[in-house]
Amino acid sequence: MTSVTDLREVVDVVIGVDTHVHTHSAAVVDARSGGVLDEITVEATADGYAQLIEFADEHAVLRAWAIEGTGGHGAGLTRHLERREEVVVELDRPQRAKRRNGAKSDPLDAIRAAREALSRAKLGTPRSGGDRQALSVLLATRRSAVNASTDAQRQLFSLVIAAPEPIRKRFRGQKLPAMIQTAASMRLSSTWDVETTTTVLALRCLARRACALAAEAAEHEKAIRAIVRSWRPDLLAQPGIGPIIAATVLCAWSHPGRIHSEAAFAMLAGVAPIPATSGQVTNRHRLNRHGDRQLNRALHTIALSRIRYDEATRHYVARRTTEGKTSREIKRCLKRYIARDLYRLLEHAPTKA
């Protein structure tokens, strides 16, 4: 589905939906006047989705759905609507001031969602399912395994520092990977006191947990690599891009036409410079701290890799350094250029049918 630019030109009503775990609240808003025509709250189940369709059929055939959380609480409803070829508009979380404004309820949030969709100059469609959703699931699961493994390793290191001397001396001079292997293979002795025995048990448990989680993360990365190679192998051919970075970029981008321009992709990634001109200070910009932070991190990793290994990037860094740019400023410029190149590659290169 291509992106929609002005709903008032193509639909009679917009149905705003405020999504929650157990219920969804919907409001039908007239596309011309912005007036509320009807409201309903249904359960977040297949029967509830069918009830929403019947509710919508009572008002207009030419309609669009404005949904918050199309990838979260509203994922089930979004899939149901897309199977019926309904027009679905993805909305960010409304600004707090507009959302609250002295009043808060699910029906009010549904009305605000519909009116916000009508007021926006550029509207996008929800992220696709299929390969993109599979990558999203694998990335989230791998990230959880990596974080938990890292936590276990830190706890193991802290326990070794405070361990009784007979245990601590076994780890002296070892780096963390060797410490984990040592702890995982430790055996108990009947001559140890309760403190030493308990410490060894804890160290062994943490070491084995860290190893198991690292192995799990490696399996997830293998599955991610297979999907990326099948879907967009051209990404892996780009300097500084491995399977995790490629999957992160694909999850944010989703499909051709969803993001309407390279500037919008840069804004999504949080690498579009934000003007900070004031008074006589001109041509000044500040750091963009908004957007998809995982995508921003991926672009940062690409930039660091290219600075280290890519000859053309090193020449660029040297040239901008002689112009007086700081290291941070150069990295910000690089991330913006990388976002432009990736957007053009993603939008114009052939994709899997």
Outline the fold blueprint.
Layout: E1 13-19, E2 23-30, E3 36-43, H1 46-57, E4 63-68, H2 75-83, E5 87-91, H3 96-100, H4 106-119, H5 130-162, H6 165-171, H7 176-184, H8 194-231, H9 233-236, H10 243-253, H11 262-268, E6 274-275, E7 285-286, H12 293-309, H13 311-322, H14 327-348
Helix pairs in contact: 5-8, 5-10, 7-8, 8-10, 10-12, 11-14, 12-13, 12-14
Q: Low-confidence spans: pLDDT under 50, at least 5 residues?
A: none
Largest β sheet strand count, sense and barrel closure: 5 strands, mixed
Would you tell me the structural class of the helices and strands? alpha/beta
Order of helices and strands: EEEHEHEHHHHHHHHHEEHHH
Q: What general outline do the C-alpha atoms trace?
A: globular
Give a verbal description of the structure.
There is one protein chain. The chain has 353 residues and is of the alpha/beta class. The chain is built from 14 helices and seven strands. Strands 3-2-1-4-5 form a five-stranded mixed sheet. Strands 6-7 form a two-stranded antiparallel ribbon. A hairpin with a 5-residue loop joins strand 2 and strand 3 (36-43). The longest helix is centred in the middle third of the chain and has 38 residues, at 194-231.
